[in-house]
Design goal:
Helix content: 25-40%
Order of helices and strands: EHEHEEEEEHEHHEEEEHH
Number of domains: 1
Oligomer: single chain
Distance between the termini: 41 Å
Structural class: alpha/beta
Number of strands: 12
Strand content: 15-25%
Shape: globular
CATH superfamily: Carbon-nitrogen hydrolase
Strand order of the largest sheet: 5-4-3-2-1-12
Length: 297
């Protein structure tokens, strides 16, 4: 695992019921920034589109959207990050030119209140005709930022991106140690979850555990908790163990601490680099007729 010496970092993984009301969302963000500061966090991680709300979910479309209100709210977050000297991973909508749909983004804000980079959701949901799902409302991105907080190399992901393991491998190639994965999976009718089963709640936590263990990295995974939410926010360590999680449908801040001097079990440590280069076996191959003959015992 890549290290800049021994580093320690405290992460605040936040959840609240994301809404169409930008100013209501802002109040949650500011409150949780202060809670995180009181608990000595270095970086505060918020969920997908937590400031702007989610088009097609919290509101119908971006027609007549309050972009000036979102800009003012974003400035408030930047000012608070500077005041509290906190890094912030903030989910929001990023406006493009008038002919283009906005990005579904994570702003990477440093502890001086400046946006140092932005991640735009790469795999927006929806068919290729872009008439439904995320693609009806959002333009995908193709930039995979890597940044350093307190000596720890970090990356970011948004919700449906988790369906594409190739992205996590790219982050591993970039020597990322910690991934902030922001989700938005709520507003489900309880009857629907009871009848059809909560597939998202079933598959997301173990997928994050597998990605953490296979790539030997920490993952902060949060979610909106707007009822009904599929799962609460949680944190995974590099051996794939979920260290802690919040209570669903209750706003909160989960504090997790990284210490790069701590050793974790890593089953694929010896051969991961070869697999990532396309060498799909361990050890040495041999030339043997009984190995080549695959139709007899």
């Amino acid at each position: 695992m890549y290290h800049h010496g021994i580093m320690k970092l405290t992460i605040a993984t936040c959840q609240f019921p994301v809404d169409s009301d930008i100013h209501r969302n802002l109040r949650y963000v500011l409150r949780q920034l202060n809670q995180a500061k009181q608990r000595r966090a270095d970086v505060v991680h918020f969920s997908e589109l937590c400031l702007s709300g989610y088009a097609g979910v919290e509101f119908k479309s971006y027609k007549n959207f309050d972009w000036s209100g979102l800009s003012e709210a974003t400035e408030c977050v930047l000012a608070e990050a500077k005041k509290l000297k906190l890094w912030v991973i903030l989910g929001s909508s990023h406006r493009l030119g008038s002919k283009h749909k906005p990005h579904n983004s994570l702003y990477i804000i440093n502890n001086r209140g400046s946006i140092i980079d932005r991640y735009d959701k790469m795999f927006c949901t929806g068919p290729r005709d872009e008439r439904s799902g995320d693609l009806k409302h959002y333009t995908p991105g193709n930039h995979l930022p890597v940044f350093t907080i307190g000596g720890v190399r970090c990356g970011v992901q948004i919700c449906h991106d988790f369906r594409y393991q190739e992205i996590y491998r790219e982050l591993k190639k970039k020597r990322v140690q910690l991934v902030f994965h922001s989700y938005h999976n709520g507003h489900h009718p309880q009857a629907t979850l009871d009848r059809s089963g909560n597939i998202w709640g079933v598959i997301v936590p173990p997928t994050m555990q597998a990605y953490a263990a296979n790539n030997h990295m920490w993952i902060s995974a949060n979610n909106t908790i707007a009822r009904c939410s599929s799962w609460p926010s949680f944190f995974v360590q590099p051996d794939g163990v979920i260290t802690d999680k919040l209570r669903n449908h209750s706003a909160g801040v989960l504090i997790s601490r990284i210490d790069t001097s701590k050793k974790f079990y890593d089953a694929s440590e010896q051969w991961r680099d070869r697999a990532m280069k396309g060498v799909l076996h361990s050890g040495k191959l041999v030339s043997d007729p009984r190995s080549r003959d695959r139709k007899s015992y």
